[in-house]
Amino acid sequence: MSELRARLDVPSGVDAPRGARKTVRQLLTAWGFTDGDWLDIADLVVSELVANAVRHGGGLLEIAVQAHETQVTISAADSTSVSPRRRTPDDTGGYGLALIEQLAAAWGVDDYEGGKLVWVRLWSHPAPLRPVT
C-alpha cells in the first residue's frame, strides 16, 4: 500500500465532532481499515481533536488523515498557537489528553500557518487491510 492522504475542511460548531467522526470513519473504512474496535478508537481520537480545536483553538481549520500500511495519523489544525496542556479533570473537562495518551501510540503539536497542528498516531491496525469496493 502506498501512502494515502486526505484533508477535510470541517465547519466549526457543536456538530463538528460528529461530522468529522463520521467522515473520517467512512474514509478509513474505504481505505481498508475495517476492524470495529480500532475504528471506535479512531472515532474517539477524532472527537477529542475536533472538540478541543473548536472549544480551545479558535475554530477548526482542517482535519488531515494519513495512512501507510497499517499506520494512521490523524491531525487537526486550528488558528491559535496555544499548545494543549494537561489539566486536572473537573466538571468542565480536562480528560482529553489523558484519553489521547491511552488510545494512541504517539501525539504531538506542530506550528501550522500561524496556528497549530495537533497530530495523533494511532496504534497499528490489527487486521490485514481489505479495501472496500
TrEMBL record:
Keywords: ATP-binding, Kinase, Nucleotide-binding, Serine/threonine-protein kinase, Transferase. Pfam families: HATPase_c_2. One of its GO terms (molecular function) is ATP binding. It comes from the Bacteria. InterPro entries: Anti-sigma-factor_SerPK, HATPase_C_sf, HATPase_dom. The keyword ATP-binding applies. This is ATP-binding protein.
